[in-house]
Model the fold of this input.
Amino acid sequence: MTPKNEKELAQMITGANGTLRIKGGGTRPIGQCDGDELNTSAMSGISLYEPGALTIVAGAGTPIAEVEKVLAAENQRLAFEPMDHRALLGTKGAPTLGGMAAANVSGPRRISVGACRDFMLGVRFVDGQGNIVKNGGRVMKNVTGYDLVKLLTGSYGTLGVLTEVSLKVLPNVETIGTVMLYGLTDTKAIEAMSAVLGSPFEATGVAHFPKSKFGDPLTMIRVEGFETSVTYRAEKLRDLLKPFGDAEIQIGATEGPGSPEGWSWVRDVTAFAEHPGDVWRISAKPSEAANLVAKMEANAVQYDWGGGLIWALTDEGRDLRAALGDFDGHATLIRGKADVPTFQPEVPALAAITAGLRAKFDPRGILNSGIMS
Done:
């Protein structure tokens, strides 16, 4: 089923006799759910773009690349740099705004500007009873009623099928600078990254690659803005990091780790793309990250968000959660064959709230049923 508009979508959901599996661009098949495919790709196109107001509104099926092209023409961007999962998951198609919002997809810049959820201004969606719902608006100061915008973002289509998304955008930057350290242990790298994030020098990307079959340890810190400011802050960060070694600075690099392409490599976890095994995404306290990695026995690891986000490549079929035990965070199976729930099981109190919300928005339980089980 491929509805052409919101009304058709509402009719399809109302008349559904079984479960529905929601699909946008088909680039992010994370989680398992059965049912008839409901494809939102036809509900596409930019309906409003006001560069002066830093606002864009588009259909949920609109490819992200189309939006980024329009923004680039006005020297603007999606500041939270949504991850492209295609290389990692071996998928085709085009990532869409609806899929991005449904999964709250965010990249390395989340540490400085926030996640996709923080840039969502408004949504239109159809709930599990076929009701068309609008929430939010086209400005940041919108406090009318319940904030369903934040609720829908990251709900993986279990509360409603998105039809339209309103987003705040930001100006692009003039220059990118990257400060790089080599040879640090995980513990030292996290200490260095924490020092950076505690400084006033506004890093917009802080990542670490431990020694693995992909190469020697590399710690990367990104600063962005006007060239004079980037140069100044990069030099200050190099001074700050002297206790950890001699740092290398790249300003305006067009290739290599410090270039925009290099940071997209961080964002998309492409180091794992051509290697077999399960891929886990672990959210944790940076102070606990190195100890958690020591328990993993992973084939390769990548730290992002200063250690708050860990990507791990493990042997196929291995339950990484069992190896980690209880910790203050959660582990999601992004790619793999492990016979475990894709998402971290919720504690009873949170599970009760989740079930209550789904009962309100989708009382028949037909939207992406089981995807978060």
Observations:
- The chain has a mean pLDDT of 91.
- The chain is about 30% helix and 25% strand.
- The two ends are 24 Å apart (CA to CA).
- The domain at 175-335 is CATH 3.40.462.10 (Vanillyl-alcohol Oxidase; Chain A, domain 3).
